[in-house]
Amino acid sequence: MAAQVRGGKSAVYDQLRWLWLWSSLAGVRKCMRVRYGPGVDVFGDDSGNVYFGGFCRCHSVWACPLCAPAVRAGQAKQMARELVQVVKDGKGLVFSTLTVPHDQGDSLSALFTATSKAWADVRADRAVRAWMGDLGVHWRRTTEVTYGQSGFHPHVHAVMVTGVPLERADVKELRSMLFVPWCSSVKRSGWRPPSESYGVQTINVTGGAVGAEKVAQYMTKIQGLASEMLRMDRKTGGKTRGMFTVLADAVAGDEWA
């Protein structure tokens, strides 16, 4: 895979060079630094851009400022296409976010473990499994990590495809159903109970019966949903900062970052 360098001064490459020195991940330390063959290919175009090929790529969606955007962008586009087809087929979409209460200084490892365990317990819950079976639910889950005033913030995003679009009352019932096993699991892992308002949030993306002729109205919403699910590399604002924003601050000389 060839990679592009604009004058060797790209912020992405500044971040990657920093990670070559400081990352504990062997793949990241090799990315665009170690050859996988005997030589290196150099390309150019009429715009003055220079491309190099023949280097290892780590393909890390969590840690690499070069690979993550490319991989995540492809995943988000594919998800958007699939979800648009879901709406065309007259099915429903529900988007959920599930969080664990945390404080400044809490261990990211412990929080991440509790978050993953809680989602597994939600999926194993008898009532949840029955509900998903009755409605023919298919789902996809991602875990995101950001950082804010309360420290590390790992949380689960889940999109659920239902056989038919749900009404508002159905989505409220789903939120309550998800909250019970989520809250119980979080407490068993040693954390304080999640808030009933923010511990589990559900959004009815399609909002009632939708025909194929209305798909265009949902395109922007669906693309935003796919981005929220997968484009962690683009999180730069809000109450918490994405990990690649923290990396950029570190490269710029922020000692805390």
Quick gist of this model?
With 257 residues, this protein is α+β, with helices and mostly antiparallel strands.
Number of helices: 8
Main sheet: strand order = 7-4-6-5-8
- How much β-strand is present in the residues? 15-25%
Structural class: alpha+beta
Helix content: 40-55%
What does the main sheet amount to? 5 strands, antiparallel
Q: Distance between the terminal alpha carbons, to the nearest Å?
A: 31 Å
- Compressed to H and E, one letter per element, the order equals EHHEEHEHHEEHEHEH
* Total DSSP E strands: 8
Mean pLDDT across the residues is: 83
Which geometry do the CA atoms define? globular
Describe the fold and architecture.
- There is one protein chain.
- This protein is α+β, with helices and mostly antiparallel strands.
- It contains 8 helices and 8 strands; from the N terminus they run βααββαβααββαβαβα.
- It has helices at residues 11-22, 26-30, 67-88, 108-124, 126-135, 168-188, 215-230, 243-251; strands spanning 3-5, 41-44, 50-53, 92-99, 138-148, 151-162, 200-204, 240-242.
- Strands 7-4-6-5-8 form a 5-stranded antiparallel sheet, with helices on both faces. A 3-stranded antiparallel sheet has the order 1-3-2, with no helix packed on it.
- β2 and β3 (50-53) form a beta hairpin.
- α3 (67-88) runs antiparallel to α7 (215-230) and α4 (108-124) packs across α6 (168-188).
- The model is unreliable at 1-9 (pLDDT under 50).
